[in-house]
Design goal:
121 residues; single chain
């Protein structure tokens, strides 16, 4: 059974940082591109970032470029999202997702239960 469990969310002030983690199990983690997606209040899901199977290739939506960094630890089946200089518009539930198709795409077949990130002064 594929399981993705996120953690690390919370309430922070604008300009602060958070590091999200996602522990994967039930599949060969190193064989899949991984993604972070998010859902802001009252809005649909949007893709945030993707990382290739080996972790050397990454891409990001324009609004988070230069502030967010995706990474992975294949030895421990864990995906990360380092979020710096957070803005109120980053407020959302963040989900990690198992990618399908091309590594830099936004398609996925499984996602976790999510972790809430709230940026507010």
């Amino acid at each position: 059974e594929v399981q993705l469990v996120e953690s690390g969310g919370g309430l922070v002030q604008p300009g602060e940082s958070l590091r999200l983690s996602c522990v994967a199990s039930g599949f060969t983690f190193s064989s899949y591109a991984m993604r972070w997606v998010r859902q802001a209040p009252g809005k649909g899901l949007e893709w945030v970032s993707s990382v290739s199977t080996g972790g050397t290739l990454t891409n990001y939506r324009d609004s988070v470029k230069g502030r967010f960094t995706i990474s992975r630890d294949n030895a421990h089946g864990t995906l990360y999202l380092q979020m710096n200089n957070l803005k109120p518009e980053d407020t959302a539930v963040y989900y990690c997702a198992r990618g399908t198709g091309i590594w830099y795409g936004n398609a996925y077949d499984y996602r976790g239960q999510g972790t809430q990130v709230t940026v507010s002064s």
